[in-house]
Model the fold of this input.
Amino acid sequence: MLRRGIAALNANATASDNQAVIPVVYAQRQVRSRLGSIFVCGIAGYSLNPESRIDRTLAAQGLLAGISERGADAVGYAFRGESGSVEVSKLRGGASALLDEIAVPADSSQALIHVRDYTKGHPDVGANNHPIRHGTVVGVHNGVIENDDELFERYGIERFEDDMTVDSEAIFALMEHRAHDPKALSELRGAMAAAWLDERDLGTLYVARGLHRPLWLGANRDAVFFASTRRALTIVAAATRTRLELREAREGRLLVLVDGRVSRKRRFRPDRSYRDDGHLPPVRAPYEAVSCLTQFAALAAPAS
Done:
């Protein structure tokens, strides 16, 4: 069932999902996948009602498979543990290396997933790879922040680890320092879709969209999923047999997710002086999608 569903999803992909067309084999069937010409990273995750019967591990695996083509320099995921601490696992390489190792406890209701195609902060330094920790905040980011060093200097904030140079850390340093004030997001100059957890805020997951990076939401009465692509949400919905209402988040929005619902929406003004001029690296991992979706179909088969 899931194999047929994945193939159908790709066969019916719309131009709004992506742009350039390349052939890809999903679940041993030849279809066509539309992959955008400028990807840097992919993000995904979820907030669930604690009583939700959705399989936490399967959902995380489905989301990872759905964003796998967006980068192969590093991959990682995080979830909130029973005590409220955020547990992080990441490694150097593509999503296929981590997919079958993902394990999210059944009592965890929040997760973050990331694949990286890096621009700043070499992936050989583990602290540069996502999910990134700065103090109590752990987050994932798709995009580029041009003024990260300037912001660290302005606020007198030190890098969380001495060898960190990744630009994305500025987002999560500001969120810890400014207590998730959406006005602080207006100080970032660059492209951004991001999500984060704060160990001080149990039960809460933050999701924000700035400029030039996609962010899709899929929701029902006790779950909110998010991802860089609409397709990732359709995959997780098929795998978990969950109906989701899909929509694209608007730019300049910060969403506060609590127990599988959007509890608050706040606006901010992205710095529109930034121009995405197309200098970012091209897709590097189109065949991660082939490997991951085939692998995921096998992993999900008992649940299908």
